[in-house]
Amino acid sequence: MDRFIMRVLVFFFLCMFFIIACDPKEVPMPDEDFELEAPSYFGSYNERIPEDNPITQKGFELGRMLFYEKKLSGDNSMSCASCHQQSKAFTDGKAISPGIDGINGKVSTMSLVNLLWAEKFTWNGKMETVEAQSTEPIRNPIEMHENFENAIQKLEEAGYSRLFQEAFESEEITEELIGKALSQFQRALVSSNSKYDQYLRGEYEPTQSERRGEQLFFTHPIPGQLRGGNCGDCHLGPLTSGAIDGFQGFHNNGLDDDDNMDEGLMAVTGNPADKGRFKTPSLRNIALTAPYMHDGRFETLEEVIEHYDNGIHQSSTLDILIIEGSNENQASGDQPQLFLTEQEKDDIIAFLHMLTDEDFINNPQFSNPFEDDENN
Ligand code: HEC
Ligand code: HEC
Fold first, then answer.
1. Is the shortest distance between the CB of 294 and ligand 2 below 6 Å?
2. What's the pLDDT score for residue 172?
3. Which end of the chain is more exposed for a tag (fewer CB within 10 A), N or C?
4. Which of 228, 224, 227, 245 is nearest to 236 (CA)?
5. Which fold would CATH assign to domain 40-190?
């Protein structure tokens, strides 16, 4: 009998042990210690962080160091931040950027902003994840041009092993973990304190021009009834990007005719209907990221507006939203034009300036952690 009670008791304690050990609430959440602040109007984000790469404070800090680390390039002269500079909302002010060997790439540096809500990466969407696009430039011969064997050896020599241990509980530095740390840092690059955000939160009273600009930006025009700039048809909602609910919008916004256009999404899908279609970028901090478009062809926002107003090139893949977005009735076959007034153009530009976020470009958490290094 005593033995029976003993067994029951042992069984009972074992059960309790397993229940406590397996209770999900008892397992520390890896991202518990990292505070990511994002407004609800960007949409939820927890489920958008990959399960195998949650953002942790240590991982973020390591990612920040790697982002500014020139040892990741072949001749130790270039880091991610050489092209993605915080003061320019993580672009570089160039139409096309050369890598360490001085060879030019084909497309313009993209801003790194609110990547957590983007679906595809790079101008033609060839990358499915931030992780994939984070190690590619290191190896790319016209960018940082370094192999991972060398890069990892340099990181080990510089004492990074301890930081990888702390962030990932791994003694070993690997390409995969470099990509993961860089991605944690980049996913935390949230810009949500522009004048437009302050206005959405009821903290800023827009000027008349900014108000009209917002209205025009988000209105699809109906000739004779409703004036619109048509921008929000593709640059959607407060993110002003093409991504929505698991979908990434790629469009041909009329930069070139059939004979002169770049491949765009077709390079990825092989589908001729995708020729000239590019990822619709976020316009957040757009006043800081000139020159514009995938090839950096426009120097100013005024030139961009002129393009959409009366510079559209017709082609077989020109987007229907551009063909059908005009403030006047146009005959089919006419060059699609918006027919904006000068005042309306100024108003849209005033709205675009509302998207500048000074806190984002001055956030010390995103800045170069190597204080003595002035070249980044
Ligand atoms: C030589 C300049 C240069 C360097 C160095 C560079 N990038 Fe970029 N970055 C670019 C260009 C150009 C693009 C657009 C690429 C394309 O469309 O094919 C880009 C695109 C990206 C994107 C996609 C953004 C989006 O919204 O789709 C990410 C993420 C990115 N880079 C991260 C990094 C990281 C991380 C590093 C460092 C390991 C890095 N880049 C180094 C120029 C550079
Ligand atoms: C049919 C969809 C569509 C419409 C409508 C549209 N855009 Fe765009 N926009 C795009 C795409 C796609 C790109 C990238 C094209 C490229 O680089 O090849 C882009 C690029 C831009 C850029 C350059 C971004 C950068 O990072 O270089 C600006 C600025 C811009 N658009 C502003 C506007 C404004 C303002 C309007 C309204 C007047 C507007 N767009 C209407 C799809 C659209």
1. yes
2. 96
3. N
4. 245
5. Cytochrome Bc1 Complex; Chain D, domain 2 (1.10.760)
